[in-house]
User: Fold this.
Amino acid sequence: MSVARLLTRCRLRPTSAPLLGAELSSSASPSSSSPGRPLSAASCPLSYRSEPSLLSATPATPTQPVVYVAGGLYGNRFALDEIERLRSHDEPSSVVFNGDFNFFNSEPEVFREVNGRVLAEDPDSLATAGNVEREISSPSFSSCGCAYPSYVSPAVASRADAIVSSLHGTCRTSPFGPALAALPSLLRVSLHGAEVGVVHGDLGSLAGWSLAAEMMDPPDRALRAALGIPPSAKPTPAAQVAGQLKEAGVDVLCCTHTCLAFLQTFAGGSAVVNNGSAGMGNFRGSGAGVVTRLGRAGGELAGEVAGRVLYETTVGDLRVSAVEVAFDEEAWREEFLSAWGPGSPAHESYWDRITGGVQFWEPRQALRTY
Ligand SMILES: [Fe+2]
Assistant:
């Protein structure tokens, strides 16, 4: 995968809209966002570009009968512990870290541990790139690569840039740069008769926003109001998403970049599932992460896993579940504060979400089955 720093404009919308801190904030304040939220008039590396045909041409990677998809770990090694614990109670499983497993881990020891574990040579542990991995492994720092839409505050974007800039410095002094730069953007698995695509953003870009919860059709008006989405930011038509999945040859598409968890089904039986964040709170009042579990429909889940299922659906014989990652929040907060204390860019943008989840989002809203 080329990581050439050829740039092309990828402005998403005219900008005059109210600014907001979208998915990563605990409230609809304009002060927080995701390592995946775009700058208005952002520039996107050409290497971020994708299209459905690239996924349809990607050979399937062999996996175990259960696959965990864990996007947005954000350097939380306690979440990594909990994902491993869940897997130890489950059927034989593979895990796919689909990008942004780095973010808050600029402290060298934590950076080394997270990347050493995620990138370990293990056929059941797979990884794809997020914008964070692309940017920190580039020769020189330019931005967080978030491609924020115009409705996100420039202050949010500049704080994300500062976080990734710090991480870039850590990465440059580590041995992980070449492995991070070589990560694929796409992955495909065949599981229980279903074809599953794994991307970071959407089928058009590694940092795409067309599959953000607030952009889904039919629109969640309460969510869009909470985020201050302007009317000019039209939802992505459901028929367009279903058509892209068909073109990509997948029944289920897993993504994460926009960092607000949801699961939506489409006419024809396909589904998009965004796990939000594996390493940070996703729902009102909870600091727990979320991963997507893919397994065979029917039968009982192991108790340790069943008790953590937030919502789920089936696509043919494939069971698609959003599973809570109940990591050690006290330890995580302590580690976060040791690196990003009050007044720091990460604390300013993410502390409320780390301690209280996303105040305007609940699991009942995230399950969009029709
Ligand atoms: Fe991202």
Q: What stands out?
A: Confidence is low (pLDDT under 50) at residues 1-42. The chain is about 30% helix and 20% strand. Residues 154-172 form the longest helix (19 residues). The two ends are 37 Å apart (CA to CA).
